[in-house]
């Protein structure tokens, strides 16, 4: 997947804001202050971290070699996937949508923690 197209898609979500986390060399995308996507490189490969329910995160990791626990975020909720891996673009877009919905639920619950 092209990182530029992915970033454009993420930024099309309601309330999306982009920032750069210097210590991780990562582009973070938040919706009204709640993180839902993070683009960066892992071992020189383009990667995307997304939030999911613990059950979905575990299922994705079991079914796809290109999905693994996030290096920087809560591993039970956050998974990282290779953008140049075997996942189809449509699957990645679906996971971005699911992550944005998780961020929306977090906002509605009144929790504003990046790592949850």
Percentage of residues assigned to helices:
25-40%
CATH architecture: Alpha-Beta Complex
Percent of residues in beta strands: 25-35%
CATH class: Alpha Beta
Oligomeric state of this protein = single chain
The average pLDDT is: 92
The largest pleated sheet is described as: 6 strands, antiparallel
GO molecular function, one term: DNA binding
Keywords: DNA-binding
Provide keyphrases for this structure.
116 residues, alpha+beta, Aspartate Aminotransferase, domain 1, 3 helices, 31% strand, globular, DNA-binding, YjbR-like_sf, YjbR/MT2646/Rv2570-like, DNA binding, YjbR
Question: What this model shows, in words?
Answer:
The protein has 116 residues and is of the alpha+beta class. It has one domain: Alpha-Beta Complex (Aspartate Aminotransferase, domain 1). Helices cover 34% and strands 31% of the residues. The model has no long low-confidence stretch (mean pLDDT 92).
Summarize the structure.
Helix content is 34%, strand content 31%. Strands 1-2-3-4-6-5 form a 6-stranded antiparallel beta sheet.
